[in-house]
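Entry for the shared binder. Reason: the reviewer on the internal report wants the predicted structure included alongside the sequence.
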Amino acid sequence: MDHPLNIVFYAPLKSPSHPVPSGDRLMARLLILCLETAGHQVTVISDLRAYLGDAGDAVGWAHLQTAAGQERDRIRAQWADQGRPDIWFCYHPYYKSPDLIGPVLAAEFGIAYVTCEASYSDRRNIGIWAEMQVHALAAIRSAALNICMTERDRRGLAKAAPQAHLARLSPFIVTDGFDAAPIPQPGHMVCVAMMRPGDKFASYVRLAATVALLPADLDWHLSFAGDGPMQSDVHALFSGLPEGRISWLGKLDHRGVAALLATGALYVWPGCGEAYGLAYLEAQAAGLPVVAQDIAGVPEVVLHGQTGLLTPPGDDAAAATAMAQVLTDTGLQ
């Protein structure tokens, strides 16, 4: 490559400009920054959210296909007027959120199609999701390159599409703002997470059960940053703890999260179903050790015995022991 590339970027699950913060939005923005830092021109080509959370939503699937067709027509007209790009870059296509735009246009206009953090699982061939996975798998097979953020995803794609072109790129963050000198408060545990249904709430359930098992004579305090539709349910999980153990800080901006992490002695989050968890990287950039479950993609970003302690999935007693160990052993902080 001897010249900058014109790259169009599409994230079917959540646009980089989506108003609700999440790891997906952050990673999309980081990938754009990475490509721009390398000297390329990057344009977000569409904000269409191609997501269906219900495998039986046939009406939603029909509407989504119609909306995708309209987007393809819009982009065709745009490229006919302004010229085609060099690459279509799709971030995080999977069974609930396939790219219904890029593969068609890339083939039609003869441009390279690239995916990043694509995934495939036979277990998800249920209802409408099975048809959506057909689109996701076809895109993976046709891609000039599929960039895998975790070894788990790489193995899954290699099994589903043996001829697919795969490469690894480990999860990363920009450490600006997280590398200030920490001032950890003894016994202060920190957690930054959205309060929403599914895996996030499952992690809150595990965490509430874990802290309830901490030794009675252990001096600890847990600060939460985050909000969401399950906020009242999450608060209720911790309502039985002694007064003063928990602080609810609500949603914090980048600077607020960095300031909070700087005061922590330990970052805690079980990580149920986490693809990898950018919040773990932020915590480690701020100098915090981590206690999490040895589950899903968490081991991709937390190294057991080096940057944190990983405990067996669902073993709340082991997690409580690990938290107490870190909080009472300054050599582990």
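Summary line for the report: The two ends are 45 Å apart (CA to CA).
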